[in-house]
Amino acid sequence: MREHIRQPEGLPPTNAYSHVVSYSGRTVAVSGQVPLDSTGDLVGRGDAEAQIRQVFRNVSTALAAAGAGMRDVVKLTVFLIDLADLPLFRQVRDEYIVLSEPPASSLVQVSGLVNPEFRVEVEAWAAV
């Protein structure tokens, strides 16, 4: 069960996220996913959109392995190297996330990820 809680005096959420999501059920934690394909090869060298799409494919695959799906995501944490990639990130995210009940979300600009060619990393929490 999932409930999106509106803060009576808080700022309204923008850009497809909720300030508070309460849930019950089995919790699934997905480690930070990076733009590597199933063979471990980098996808989208220098191409932010291709990397973001691969990251969401990886999140979806990890969730499916645990019997969950993107509809079950209650929290995303996003790490971007360049905030100029944010519009592309939002565009791709919105293809994967149910916008009528968006998860809680955090976005962090970082100076680097474990591989200097990675432009994005996403971790997720889901409840099933």
TrEMBL record:
The lineage of its organism: Bacteria, Bacillati, Actinomycetota, Actinomycetes, Jiangellales. GO terms for molecular function: deaminase activity. It comes from the Bacteria. GO terms for cellular component: cytosol. PANTHER family: 2-IMINOBUTANOATE/2-IMINOPROPANOATE DEAMINASE RIDA, PROTEIN HMF1-RELATED. This is Enamine deaminase RidA (YjgF/YER057c/UK114 family). It comes from Haloactinopolyspora alba. Belongs to the RutC family. CDD domains: YjgF_YER057c_UK114_family (cd00448).
